[in-house]
Model the fold of this input.
Amino acid sequence: MRDEPWRPCIHYTPARNWVNDPNGLVRLDGEYHLFCQYNPFGERWGHMSWGHAVGSDLVDWHELPVAIPEDERVSIYSGSVVVDHRNTSGFGAPGQVPLVAVYTGCLRRPEGGQAQELAYSVDRGRTWTKYAGNPVLDLGLRDFRDPKVFWHDESGRWVMVVVVPDARSARIYGSPDLKTWTLLSEFASPFEGEGIWECPDLIPFDLAGEGRIWMLKVDVFGGHPSGGTGARIFFGRFDGATFTPEAEAGPRWADQGADFYAALSFANLEPGDAPVWLAWMSCHRYAQDVPTAPWRGAMTLPRRLALRRVDGRIELLQQPVAALERLRGAVVEVAGAMIGGAGADLLPAEFDDAALEIELTIASTNATTCGVAIECGDSRVLVGYDRERGAVFVDRSASGWSPAGDELWGRRRHAACAAPTPARPLRLRLWIDRSSVEVFAGDGEAVLTELMFPPAGRRRLRLISAGGPTGFGPTLVWPLRPARID
Ligand code: FRU
Done:
């Protein structure tokens, strides 16, 4: 087992080297493929190529050799993979179903230049051939990237959503064969003065009683409430050519934590399956400095997605995939109790530093803040409910390592959620790994993902209630066995 300090137990990391965005997430013949932005030569960003891992359940992963390497002409930036069932590309011999990767080729010359390119595989993603006719979509721009492609049944063609980052605009193209692309529409940011756009995704959902609703996700390089980067979401209709958003009061974010970026949904899931996505669990502001070796960067847990409408407003619900339950060891259950003042040890026992899943319930509270403290040595991370703000929060200000000179790292992060009441207690689900915490409140409508780098050692959990009493329901803690990631 890979066992260096801070090496995640239940999150995908490569054995060595730098990793950022997930790319080309796709399921084929019962196998999930996780491609990623990868530097085969070092622990910092550079020489972008597609790394590769496969697995059968979204929990265990087996790393394979680099799938699509940088060459003399281009680096291989982010993109997606489709299963070309009809062999529209002609990349498969008759009767063969090719996998086609659509990615951004970034020219390796000082002035750069980005265009969309193809590579294909006819051996279950093991080997890839770059298309001789690359690039397939070139506007002559310096920045034009991150194509997400899917088959749109109603219009019988491929659809690509891709961004012009500094215009903060998503362009939608159509194609019969993945090789020739026609502009269908453009969707520009309604918000002024924020960071560039990257990594779009356009995901269909069936919303009870309303039919098909689409979610457009783009990553924004600045302007997220964490002070850094994040995943902006819009809900609306998509007719095969144009995305029309519902009117919204303000920006919406998929995750209020600092470390959720470049999320991508899996292609080719079973018909009727809910969408599943995962993201890069870091932030470009400090990603190159995090103190891990000989790798740098990790993926979030894979999350199953759903929508619901509450008081006229659509909510995105996220929950880690149920397959993770397989990792649960014997549950430790603590009875509900009223806690006030300084807080109490949740448990007489301590936990070792592997991963933990915690479910806690706040039935009612008069505290200013209440929740759980995760302590190790003199490090402490707080996760809980802030009554004044009506929000769940993560506070990693005393978590241990922090990037030099970065004031935003330790700022408390909030995600609005409904207040706990005895009739509707607030449920918090936490997945804690050696260097991260992911928090899902309620039914997954409020989510926070944050890195932390505590000292090595055993962990102590405490329920906290500051400034008044809190009624906690039963708390469940599952020590998690490490996933098999090799
Ligand atoms: C997002 C991103 C993408 C780009 C890739 C390069 O993290 O900047 O826009 O394709 O990373 O590694």
Notes: The two ends are 7 Å apart (CA to CA). The chain has two domains: 17-322, 328-479. The chain has a mean pLDDT of 96.
